[in-house]
Prior knowledge:
This protein is an alpha/beta fold. It contains ten helices and 13 strands.
Amino acid sequence: MRRNRPRKVVALTGAAAFLGSNLIGVLEEDPGIERVVAIDIEPPPTGGPKTRMYEVDLTVPASEERVAEILAAEGVDTLLHLAFLSTPTHASAWAHEVESVGTMHVLNAARQAKVGKLVLWSQTLLYGAAPTNPNFLTERHPLRASPDEPYFSDKIAAERSVLAFGAKAKDTVVTILRTAPIVGPTVRNLITRYLGQRAVTTLLGFDPLWQFVHEVDAIAAFKLAIDRDAPGVFNIVGEGVLPLSTVLRLASRMTLPVPHPMAGAVVGALWGAQLVPAPPSFLPYLRYLCVADGQKAARTMGFRPTYSTREALLDFVGAQRLREVRLLQETPE
Length: 333
């Protein structure tokens, strides 16, 4: 006679943001989950009878002890650290406190509470876009995104802290999921903001390959990491790639090609005026390749995306067009 497996108690930082709130909705429906512990500055909209909400600001020094208390009191065995920005901000000092310093608080709390599993959200954008990149970047390639851009440097610092934590905490399974840019009908981030503009900036003479993962597949990958013990770093990507020109054609976007020598000054001025979704440090992604290999996740975790890169983009585009039609209908004549 088989014994029933003990039900899991899962905690999530960044619980009210896209990944956290959607994962809580999935965990609420899973009979193998006993309790969900939501840690954020506001409650997730998907919380149900299993969810216990704790209001914690990770930028506050006292948050380390508070999170440790919560993890211990709730008997948390799996902790998902998802408290990261999905789009750049002009408030870079605050972002550093949230992502880099906040990660240190979370890791110290996890160490004190002796959490059995830690799952971190990261991004394939951290590999950086460069002319020397291979066709597909594996998990062994270094993270070479611009160290001068806080959006990248804080996330890279957080990854390094988690890897160092995993090297010392032998009794903790540490999993890092680097997602390709997430697109879909409901997600809002840097890439969906870029593709959501009616006219988008491109670099004259350059047409790099792009890669996406559908929001449903990204959520499924984190659920796999909860259900299965898979220590290590994994690229979570959709199958296939698309040239940027094809991406923009499928999205029916008008392009504004800018010669790359003057693009930095132009985009810098627009970023300062808050007219574009990202600063000039993102221009290399309009010029060079940054595409990740997802074979390790398939082989080790059993992750296989439902949507290809093209299908994920088209699902986003369809939802975006519906929103644009509604806006036109609601606009008074």
